[in-house]
């Protein structure tokens, strides 16, 4: 039995590649989370994918059988918004993101500039599936004009049922190639994310475990900030890639999927 995982109170789940792939949920992940709840454990769903709102993830997780509470869902978009409200109040912001992310920013009281704005205090880029050349040009022009450059998350690719598609980190790389300016990133694996999770849940880092499929986001979040990190091989990272990683970048535990974790923790069986 894995006594380390058994002792944790809060279980943080990456979404894409960990509990589902695109629109296909993993039945073993649904069972694992139900068994965690039966054992009295707390659950938090955290995704770096800031292209969708909390309402979108609530509907999707509910439809796939995970029975989430709205308070159990956070994204890199939430972390970025919290940073802007706390540390850049009143700043003029140009956001290169989806309409859903734009709505989240506006609902949080952040005024957004149009692409034809002459100047901005801050430019934020994200995983923008509605990306146009006009939006890309505006972001680069405003950054060249002196705007601070932030990015919601560093993921290069987003896994889908049909393979990988370019994610936020790939888009940011294009902006950096044009402007020579690298962004400050949010989401996993950065400290702001751990601090927000602690604040929202009231749990200490030592009481948490994160499950994910990426070494450079999910696992790095845990290894760099004192949270137990468990890699599942159901998404991006392969066993060979994990074996080739530096010792400091390897997960505390590795499993083929969440199905094996449930058995290793001796969780209550479902009726």
Summarize the structure.
The chain is about 40% helix and about 20% strand.
How would you describe this structure in keywords?
single chain, 271 residues, alpha/beta, Rossmann fold, 6-stranded parallel beta sheet, 39% helix
Question: What does this entry look like structurally?
Answer:
By secondary structure, this protein is an alpha/beta fold. It has two domains: 3-48 and 188-264, HAD superfamily/HAD-like (Rossmann fold, 3-Layer(aba) Sandwich), CATH 3.40.50.1000; 89-185, Rossmann fold (3-Layer(aba) Sandwich). The chain has eleven helices and 14 strands. The strands form four sheets. Strands 5-4-1-12-13-14 form a six-stranded parallel β-sheet, with helices on both faces. Strands 6-7-8-11 form a four-stranded parallel β-sheet. The chain has a two-stranded antiparallel sheet with strand order 2-3. It starts with a helix and ends in a 7-residue tail after the last helix. The mean pLDDT is 95.
Task: Give the secondary structure arrangement, pairings included.
Blueprint: H1 3-6, E1 10-13, E2 20-21, E3 24-25, H2 27-38, E4 42-47, H3 54-63, E5 73-75, H4 76-87, E6 93-96, H5 99-107, E7 122-125, H6 133-144, E8 148-151, E9 157-160, E10 163-166, H7 168-179, E11 184-185, H8 191-201, E12 208-212, H9 215-225, E13 228-232, H10 239-244, E14 253-255, H11 258-264
Parallel strand pairs: 1-4, 1-12, 4-5, 6-7, 7-8, 8-11, 12-13, 13-14
Antiparallel strand pairs: 2-3, 9-10
């Amino acid at each position: 039995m894995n006594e380390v995982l058994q002792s944790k109170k809060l279980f943080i789940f990456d979404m894409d590649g960990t509990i589902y792939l695109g629109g296909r949920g993993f039945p073993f992940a649904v069972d694992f989370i139900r068994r965690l709840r039966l054992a009295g454990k707390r659950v938090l769903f955290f995704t770096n994918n800031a292209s969708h709102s909390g309402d979108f993830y609530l509907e999707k997780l509910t439809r796939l059988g995970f029975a989430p509470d709205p308070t159990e869902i956070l994204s890199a978009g939430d972390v970025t918004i919290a940073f802007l409200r706390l540390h850049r109040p009143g700043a003029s912001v140009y956001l290169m993101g989806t309409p859903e992310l734009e709505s989240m920013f506006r609902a949080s009281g952040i005024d957004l500039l149009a692409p034809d704005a002459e100047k901005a205090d801050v430019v934020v880029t994200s995983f923008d599936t509605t990306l146009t050349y006009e939006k890309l040009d505006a972001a680069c022009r405003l950054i060249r004009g002196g705007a601070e450059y932030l990015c919601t998350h560093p993921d290069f690719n987003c896994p889908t049922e049909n393979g990988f598609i370019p994610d936020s980190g790939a888009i940011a790389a294009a902006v950096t190639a044009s402007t020579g300016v690298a962004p400050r990133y949010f989401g996993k694996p950065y400290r702001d994310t751990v601090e927000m999770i602690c604040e929202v849940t009231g749990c200490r880092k030592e009481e948490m475990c994160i499950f994910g499929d990426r070494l450079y986001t999910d696992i790095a979040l845990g290894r760099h900030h004192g949270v137990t990190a468990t890699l599942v091989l159901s998404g991006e990272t392969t066993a060979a890639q994990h074996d080739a990683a530096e010792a400091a970048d390897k997960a505390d535990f590795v499993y083929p999927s969440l199905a094996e974790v449930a058995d290793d923790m001796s969780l209550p069986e479902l009726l």
